[in-house]
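A reminder before we start the practical. When you read a complex entry, don't treat the lines as separate problems. The point of joint prediction is that each chain is placed relative to the others, so the output describes one connected object in space. Small molecules and nucleic acid strands, if listed, are placed in the same frame. In the example below there are two entries. Take a minute to note the order of the lines before looking further.
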Amino acid sequence: MQMPAAYEVAPDDFGEGHHTTTGLSNTKLGMWAFLGSECLLFGGLISTYMLYRGRVAAGPGPEDVFDIPFTSISSFVLLMSSLTMVLAVVSIAQGDLKRFRTWVLTTAFLGAVFVSGQAYEFTVFYREGLGFTTSLFSSSFYVLTGFHGVHVTFGIMMLLALFGLSLRGRLGVGQAETVEIVGLYWHFVDIVWIVIFTVVYLIPA
Amino acid sequence: MAIVEQDRPAGPLALPAGDGEHREREPLGVFSRPVHARGWRSWLFTVDHKRIGIMYGAAALFFLILGGVPALLIRAQLAGPNGTVLTADQYNQVMTMHGTVMIFLVVMPIGACFINYLVPLQIGARDVAFPRLNALSFWTFLFGGLFLNLSWILGGAPDGGWFSYAPNTGVVFSPTHGMDFWALTIIITGIASSVGAVNLIVTMLNMRAPGMSLMRMPIFTWMALVTQFLLLFAIPVLTVAAFLLFFDRRFGANFFDVSQGADPLLWQHLFWIFGHPEVYLMILPAFGIVSEVLPVFARKPLFGYPFVVFSGVAIAFMGFGVWAHHMFASGLGPVSVAAFALATMFIAVPTGVKIINWVATMWGGRLKFDPAMLFAIALVLQFTLGGLSGVTHAIAPADTQQTDTYYIVAHFHYVLFGGALFGFVAGWYFWWPKVFGYKLNRTLGLVHFWWMVIGFNLTFGFMHILGLQGMPRRIYTYADGMGWNLWNMVSTAGAFILATSFIVFFVNIFVSRKHKTHEVDPWDARSIEWMTSSPPPAHNFDEIPVVHHLDEFWYRKYAEDDDGQLVQIATGDEVYRKELAQAEQDHAAEHMHMPSVSYWPIVFSAGLPLVGLGMIFNLGLAVLGGLVSLVALFGWVLEPSVAPEDSHGPAPASEEEAVSVG
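Here is the predicted structure of the whole assembly.
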């Protein structure tokens, strides 16, 4: 009698058996748990910003520096990257590597546009006298949006890694779930941005 | 406690690694796999959850000394009025390091030690879900702890208390680098805890043996699951707080600078939103251990298993809603204070449920008073005392009187030491024969127990009186004639008795290690981790057991005969041999691939303290540390988690075991 298939573990994926107790793969469940943890991280940062956004000392306040149209466009770009991420997941699931590469690169590019926009925005704010140490508002603004920017940057690195793996032939239909898991992270970062954009830019202090 | 390897033929604990000559070449030639099946290097690169659990325990005992010596210094300073052992500044450092080390580097890692070792065995898994991440958690914790203790020699230890209340911990009031070390340590060990939490949650939800539904999981595993969820959601909040504090200190941000209009309560809220779940995640593993130990030594099933499970879950949920009871004296306003006071009184209910269940488990049982049982009973009594003084804190007007006095110190030492640590010692006595193949000597265990109980209660019991007499916490000395001299002297004497009790424990380990019996089931236990050899083989089970009951192992040993009488149908050893024979027959262990040893977890973790030192002293060092971790990440990603030539069969049990502790 052979061991039941559930406990045969393929050499290249220990514990990634397709017969887990919950039916979800380990990596996917792990990503969900990690994202739950991230919610609390951003929760702490957003709370800090909410507490301090009106405390501008002698420096410029939110209404003096924010360029709502510009940030709206870069937010739109980031949201559209969620759409291209979905298209990337669909293409890999259908085994269309060429389309997958197109969409995954597009997603990474849109993310990079967003991060560049943030870098540009920070530079402008700094020139207008909003340094990191200017006021409670400036410290909490830079820390909150900076943490989010770092998260987007990590996401871009993951997307580029997926692109590289697909070029080397190490990413096929069998690894579609890996792309989906990176997608989970990417969508999460987008959703967090919707909250941050609303709280920081759209709701007047 | 040193873990010594002995040369021996490759047995069940050795990780096979192909032959010594052959190295699998990865796409980038430098990234080859370690091939050390034996010796100290096999421990450095291991991904086996059992070895990682043992290393967690060993590291925690090492830090116990680093956290215990400061405690003795505190007691020496306070033995009499106008003490001169420490200056005020040294006292602050010693007090802070005692708290920080004991909480983050002793109690939490000992919990991790039990959880790592036992959870995969209790749920019938071969290892955790992500073995290399498990190694990363351990090394990150260890290097974070060593990094914190470097502060003693690099310009002074942290001096703001383990709670680090801002703005007191800003550069103005704490100019040394101590608090920078503290904040970075919190971030580094936080990474370890968060990664571990994700890993273990996935393991427990996803890798249970066939038939093991959630309500058939051993109670310790349940408490471990609740603990990991608490970690998952509490740690990031503390991480945010530590980042804000570090940005304040290092880059001149002003999150806690009151002159800029900052709110000092921000730190308190962030810290205690983490801090209260923290105290529950420290005690819950010990609750799980006690819930395993009592039924075995009372020879009765755990009374009201579902109640014990759901009270644990309820404690976790409510634990996130009571944090402000640490801040009653900070001027929150009557509405908040009343709400949090009520919530705090309510959380005593599920805790009380557990205590009732333990008492009812013992009630009518045929008790065997082995050391493990005695430590477990001590937990029940002492935790109840600590819990009762805790309920008095929940009453806000009383708390206003008690806050910042030794009454509080007495309370949390009763629940943390009299609760968590006693539970852990019970667990050590209980699972020691499974982990190392020999029982700890019973007589020495009894000496250890009474010595520790007497020392503990002398140390902390009279602090209740000191606190009610108004002796404040965190004072480095006190004047004569306050009426505090006697009890402080008693407390100091108790502290030294308590410290020496651990020497008895270490002596016991040393003396007992020669008497290896490798008994499968020395206590007539109930859960399936006892269905393996002692110590268990690297792959845990030759054949994954199929679970039909809660307390599966017990049901395989006992059954009712025709008259409804309970009779033993097999010994633990027979059950184990039967499984072994079955596995042999099924060739179950053929093609069993276990995760392979790896360099990258330890390399990645080694980069983090370098980044920390770099952030404090020299950014170049931080870049270097970052590069080390980056290289490790690349190596990690490019290396498959299982080397193709690594294949496990059930090895014959060898006479000589790999692990000997001395």
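Discuss with your neighbour: The two ends of chain B are 6 Å apart (CA to CA). What might explain this?
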